[in-house]
């Protein structure tokens, strides 16, 4: 008889920059799913004799569309997601590398975009789960991972919410390997 050999499990891989950003927007409830229409900039555009581009610090619903609609600017990288091997608009990249670096975690933990999304997610959790940390944890894990938290995750997450607040808990979940 022939032996059945199970294939080796595929190692986990980090999402590309575009999918990370779109997933953050989806979890916070801010993603605009409308298809088509004009693109959006993640840079402030200043027109003189030439165009000057500055990284945006504040974002509105106009920038909460899927990344496929982003207007890319040549020879610039996104202030947050450029560290995730998102090439500038002047490069052709048929295949990206996927290293994990400390700079990626720092950008995700401190960027104005992620701070804003964490605040929006905290508002969503308050609206959907109420003020009980245990229920907020259950709802957050369902949104992030499509699963309930285990006992350890439930205890640690509730303790983090009580000690540091709901936005800090949301920011921590955005930085987990399981989400990325």
What does this structure look like?
- This protein starts with 16 loop residues before the first helix and ends in a 6-residue tail after the last helix.
- Helix 2 packs across helix 3, helix 3 packs across helix 4 and helix 5 crosses helix 6.
- It is globular, with a radius of gyration of 19 Å.
- It is mainly alpha-helical.
Question: Top keywords for this entry?
Answer:
mainly alpha; 42% helix; two-stranded antiparallel sheet; 180 residues
Please tell me how large the radius of gyration is: 19 Å
H/I helix tally: 6
Shape: globular
Order of helices and strands: HEEHHHHH
Based on DSSP secondary structure assignment, what is the total number of beta strands?
Answer: 2
The fraction of residues in strands falls at: 5-15%
Oligomer: single chain
In whole angstroms, the N-to-C terminal distance is 42 Å
Share of helix, binned: 40-55%
- Low-pLDDT ranges: none
What is the arithmetic mean of pLDDT?
82
Give the spatial strand order of the biggest sheet: 1-2
Question: Main β-sheet, in a few words?
Answer: 2 strands, antiparallel
Please provide a brief summary of the model.
The chain has 180 residues and is mainly α. The protein is built from 6 helices and 2 strands, in the order αββααααα. Helix content is 42%, strand content 6%.
How are the SSEs ordered, and which strands pair?
Elements: H1 17-28, E1 43-47, E2 51-55, H2 102-110, H3 112-129, H4 133-145, H5 151-164, H6 166-174
Antiparallel strand pairs: 1-2
